[in-house]
């Protein structure tokens, strides 16, 4: 009897395909850059303390200070409504702050070492974006501890969903910070640009006021602000507020991140 059964061979990537993938993405290098940022966050614990202190100041100053003047918004007290905005504030400050290390790396030679290494230029960009997003999400997790002070009820579902929405937001902000860091040549200029960008992004994101019934010009500004979609996503999953819009907000954040990554990688190839 003739055995007609043939062994099924698993298709494998050809050496050419593997070389193409390796020329675009270096997972080991990305993990190294990410781990470097996480170690830096652990060693610089003052960043964590500063983020917590800043969040508490804004929460008590805005949430409890304006509670009597603004009343309830969409059935939520003002401190409940503004608490997701406090998380978004932590994300934008920490996300842009993490990109400053690129300026340091350029001045002290680490950036050139990465660029001359046999690794794609996307390694530094993707690694820095993931490192900044991860550090921002860690700080947001700490801020969630203070949710009971704002009368925000935490459940396993909304905590997990908030962390996902926060990571998407932090990824978008970190990628924008990397683009800025690639453009700026010295630390002093980065600090000026950061301060110029941070406050308008936060103020015009709907983090501290409802976005309904705003003037048309302000509605346009809100639509162009990437942090707006992050605030909406975080507020949606944390407070169960307009949940139907959360997938759209996350999709916009992801698209913005991809565009910023492409721009940052293109800029990194022009580095000497």
Automatic annotation (TrEMBL):
Superkingdom of the organism of origin: Bacteria
Gene Ontology molecular function: ABC-type transporter activity
Pfam families assigned: ABC2_membrane
Assigned keywords, A-Z: Cell membrane, Membrane, Transmembrane, Transmembrane helix, Transport
Domain ABC transmembrane type-2: 46-271
Membrane topology: Multi-pass membrane protein
InterPro entries in UniProt: ABC2_TM, ABC2_TM_bact-type, ABC_2_transport, Nod_factor_ABC_transporter
Family of the protein in this entry: Belongs to the ABC-2 integral membrane protein family.
Principal location: membrane
Protein name: Transport permease protein
A GO CC term attached to the entry: ATP-binding cassette (ABC) transporter complex
Transmembrane portions of the chain: 55-76, 82-104, 125-147, 159-184, 196-214, 248-267
Compartment(s) where it occurs, according to its Swiss-Prot or TrEMBL record: Cell membrane; Membrane
